[in-house]
Structure prediction request, 329 residues.
Amino acid sequence: MKQLNLRLHLRAVAAASCAAFGAHAAQAQEWPQRPVRIVVPFAAGSSPDILARIVNDKLSGRIGQPLIVDNKPGAGGNSGTDQASKAAPDGYTFLLSVNAPLVYNTVLYKNLPYDPFKDLVPVSLAATTPNVCAVSNALNVDSVKGWLAAMKQNPGKFNFASTGNGSISHLGVELIKLKTNSFAVHIPYASSGQAVTAIIQGDVQYACLPPVTVMPQANAGRLKPLAVTSAERSALLPDLPTLRESGLPDIQAVPWFAYMAPKGTPSEVVQRMSREIAAVLKDPETQGRLKAAYFDPVGSTPEALSQFMSDELRRWKPVIERAGLKPDN
Prediction:
């Protein structure tokens, strides 16, 4: 009798498991039934905002529902990333965020209101782009050497812009300052567009920012681009030297953009979203639009993005700690 009861119990458990699996599978097949929200923790016109809107044009057709960009700027991307991490994990909220809120700020901030490694699940590494170091025309310099000389000749008189405390545009310049023993006051802005405007208006003297906002102003003659922050010259900006070529070795600070989802989002939905994003990023028309905006499309599995984020943390944590960087540097 005991053996019979055990067999019946095991059958009931198996049936319940199959029912649960079937429910998850049905949910994945039926998803989505309504518009999907893409939280971008930066202002409209920022690099992640531009990327999201380009990808959405094809992605919405692939999933069969509209994708709505929900800009939630503030706290260098922390605010919107936090809000997305606390959203209902029902497959109708995703996040497109960047280096700092997803990795670096876990080192910089003691009381970050979310843990990107625990409260979010990776979906896909979307793209990278080289930052461009650009200076105000008022400096009258046309090289990295001239820029650094101008800083040393004017101690305490330079300001630099970034897209927020802990952003790669902040950390990259802090590394430059550390390597060159130079000083400048950090002034964070809500978006790269605002930071570029600050250079043009003379509120700051320089910044290392995404080319999608720097290059249109540079091509119009309103500021001077000097170098890219990637390890090698970018095929998107072949005429600009790297910082390494310009006499600053060991400085590589490249922005990247990744899709995430709230923890608990059904894995079938996460995997499908990852596949659809990767397919869109391989689409020739989308690739053309992204490259015209200076993005290098990537597309990855959730597992590959998870490993990438862990690698980034291992690479940057000792740099941040060694430099003594704080959120208000």
The CA atoms of residues 266 and 308 lie 22 Å apart. The domain at 132-228 is CATH 3.40.190.10 (D-Maltodextrin-Binding Protein; domain 2).
